[in-house]
Design brief:
Protein name: Gamma-butyrobetaine hydroxylase-like N-terminal protein
Number of helices: 4
CATH class: Alpha Beta
Number of domains: 1
CATH topology: NE0471 N-terminal domain-like
CATH architecture: 2-Layer Sandwich
Radius of gyration: 18 Å
Largest sheet: 3 strands, antiparallel
Strand order of the largest sheet: 1-2-3
Strand content: 25-35%
Distance between the termini: 69 Å
Length: 137
C-alpha cells in the first residue's frame, strides 16, 4: 500500500519535460521571441527578461531580505550569444551580461509571464519603488 501511495505522489509531483525550443528571434533593443515544439510562441520584453535574470549578480537591491530589481523599464538588449546547445546569454544596455537563459527557463518565463510581471509590480509597489529609472541630479 505504501509503495502505491509513493508511486502516486511521484507521478503527481514529477513535472513533464518542457517542449524543446524550435526558434529564437532577437528583436533588439526591446524583445526576444521564442517558439517551442508545442506550438507556443512567446514574446518577452527586455525589461521582463532583465528583472527575471537567472544571474546571481543582477544589480539587486535587498529590502528586508527580499531581492528587488527596479528602474529597468527602458532597458534594452544589445545582443545575445549562444551558450552550448541549451541556452543564451543576453547582454543588456545597462551592462548586465552574466545570466544564462536556458530554453527551459524561457519556457517557464513564457508560461508564467503574466503572473510573474504582476508579482514584480506588486513587489515594487510594496517597497515604494518604480519600473522607471531614477532621475539623475
Amino acid at each position: 500500500m505504501t509503495a502505491l501511495l509513493l508511486a502516486a505522489v511521484r507521478s503527481v509531483c514529477t513535472s513533464a519535460q518542457p517542449p524543446w525550443l524550435t526558434k529564437f528571434t532577437l528583436h533588439p533593443p526591446k524583445a526576444v521571441q521564442v517558439e517551442f515544439s508545442d506550438g507556443s510562441i512567446v514574446k518577452l520584453s527586455a525589461e521582463f527578461l532583465r528583472v527575471h535574470s537567472p544571474s546571481v549578480d543582477s544589480k539587486i537591491r535587498s529590502i528586508g531580505g527580499e531581492k528587488v530589481i527596479f528602474g529597468r523599464r527602458y532597458v534594452g538588449i544589445m545582443s545575445a550569444e549562444p551558450v552550448g546547445n541549451y541556452g543564451v546569454k543576453i547582454i543588456f544596455d545597462d551592462l548586465h551580461k552574466t545570466g544564462i537563459y536556458t530554453w527551459d527557463y524561457f519556457y517557464h518565463l513564457g508560461t508564467n509571464k503574466f503572473c510573474l510581471m504582476r508579482n514584480y509590480i506588486k513587489t515594487l509597489r510594496k517597497h515604494g519603488l518604480s519600473r522607471d529609472p531614477s532621475r539623475r541630479k
